[in-house]
Amino acid sequence: MAEPESSTAAAGAGGSRLRNAFGGVLCAFTLLLIGVLAFSIRLFSVIKYESVIHEFDPYFNYRVTQFLSKNGIYEFWNWFDDRTWYPLGRVIGGTVYPGLTLTAGTIWWFVNSLNIPLSVETVCVFTAPIFSANASWATYLLTKEAKGTGAGLMAAAILAMVPSYISRSVAGSYDNEAVAIFALIFTFYLYVKTLNTGSLFYATLNALSYFYMVCSWGGYTFIINLIPMHVLLCIVTGRYSSRLYIAYAPLVILGTLLAALVPVVGFNAVMTSEHFASFLVFIILHVVALVYYIKGLLTPRLFKVAMTLVISVGLAVCFAVVAILVALVASSPTKGWSGRSLSLLDPTYASKYIPIIASVSEHQPPTWPSYFMDINVLAFLVPAGIISCFLPLSDASSFVVLYLVTAVYFSGVMVRLMLVLAPAACILSGIALSEAFNVLTRSIKCQLAKLFDDSPAASGDSSAESSSASTASANSAKNENRSEKNETAPKEKPSKKNRKKEKEVTESVPAKHKKEKKLLVLPMEASVMGILLLIVLGGFYVVHCVWAAAEAYSAPSIVLTSRSREGLHVFDDFREAYAWLSHNTDVDDKVASWWDYGYQTTAMANRTVIVDNNTWNNTHIATVGTAMSSPEKAAWEIFNSLDVKYVLVVFGGLVGYPSDDINKFLWMVRIGGGVFPHIKEPDYLRDGNYRVDAQATPTMLNCLMYKLCYYRFVETDGKGFDRVRGYEIGKKHFKLTHFEEVFTTHHWMVRIYKLKPQKNRVRGKLKKLKSGSKTSSTIAAGRKKNPWQ
User: Fold this and answer.
1) Gyration radius (Cα) of the chain, Å
2) CA-CA distances (angstroms) from residue 190 to 141, 197, 359, 405?
3) Fewest CB within 10 A of the end CB: N or C in the chain?
4) How confident is the model at residue 497 (pLDDT cuts 50, 70, 90)?
């Protein structure tokens, strides 16, 4: 009898190993397909248009990557760019997050070392799709640590297609978020992995991943505040363990030291208020660890005395640290917080005090439809995922829930942070779908088994049943004998009371499991309908994601398209204007425009700009805003003092392009008026309304922005009808005295003007001035007024 038993056990073990191996291969193949899906769904922009860099900020990143690949890493760190922010310039190495640039530069170097001739632009275009696949795999790892392999695969597949992430990671979207979202998710995975295992190896990897996140994006402050919040939550709820200490302490020490090595961060890693929460929780964690250590050494009576002493000392240390931190930040008007952080904590702060931040469309709060556009059906699955995380609640699942709650708040303040919400929504939706499929498929299995058991039994069936029953009894007897043999003889024989308790426990556990299984078993019809509904829901989600990737988020802002009855219209005015600047102006000529177009002008036209998208100097931007808001002569004096030779404006009134400078003009007024008080917003409004028609104010009709946009506009249709604003302009026929039009693109979207040279003095007028009275001389002196006022 021993030989059949051993052969049966070996066959069972071999079957389980084969099943596990097949499951691992299937999981790896599924992850590979998910990676291919994440990469390919982001290629619509290249297929429909061409391989170009999108938006505005990516052009600066592309230009920096070109410099890095051409001149090397040391020249990059010391690069002073004199083509931006004239006449101030900008130190690139100390003011840029280098993670994206170094990543793309490394990929380019590696590919070319393999003799694959790819250009820097091609590598930059495809960096975001590559890292979207990496982000999907990181999501799988994080969700697997929280709820298992099935939930991980679901979450990875959902993240590969979620529109919110696609909007910032299509091919050509070469921005910091392209690699930062992967770094964010991978850092969270390593934190949860360390929390589950207590391994110092994973803790060290976690600090290195955090360092990569710091190099990549300013949103790293979200990590260094979310993880301390979770550690504090675990301490408060009584879930402290040595694993929690190992997961957090190395991250704070090693992560902060590494973050300080990034030039753009430097000592801000220990001097700004965004990082103080991590240090405070670090002290609290050590106090709690000391309490638990003392508790294991002392008797309960001595522990109470030591507890009082430790708490007193700990509170004193905490108060001292808080006092030091308050003293450090008290001198700052913002109490050590950056403007963007304050605008997240107080959504009205930017509109009150920093209009340059409020003027950015990405910093506006989202509308409700944007949630359904960017995460679609996930908004309905997330609540079910939250419930699943509490059944049962673990350290990993509590972290996922806390991540979602904080991400929902921040996404409600700033539409750009919908990107941070997307991974949390995908993880919880994957958990919800996995749990739902588990319940439904288990119900179908149970119902099918019950259906076959209730079928009428024939004679052969009864004999089979009796033989199976005898086999089952024999197997149970064998298992009992095997368990008796395997059990070692205990040193002390348990008492009758203990044996009775053990028996009650062993009897109650199977009964409890049976009761739970009965509760989770649904009728056959309901289970089948539930699976079909989930498949239909997934189908709708896939269709929406593909539509968003192909239509909503694939168009590059530098090349615009529209459809009409006549067919597809392509508007390539931006590149047309930059090409004209590159070929028809001198290399040292300075170009003034609103800051939105600074990066593109520098990268594509290779011309010096006054301001750009970095927005680090509010006064300089306010100067340009003041010039655009001033009358023509005053604006000419301001631009002439800055050595400006050309002025570029974007106008969409002819083709209906809404993101033009006329629609942005009130922000120029607000930013300029914040520094130069003579610019007042009410002067440009009629009864509180912004108008450019016949009801517009004289100040509006005579400002430089109005004249540069609407100069000769009446010649297009004879009426001067603005398609964006929806009415005829107020001032149609006028001439320019200090500026001359040198180029207007095919669709009038970009217009370039040249400053006229200063007029020479006439000798007759000089004689008049010399022979004039004192009053005339004072008038002449008064003409030399300060152009800034």
Assistant:
1) 34
2) 9, 10, 37, 20
3) N
4) very low
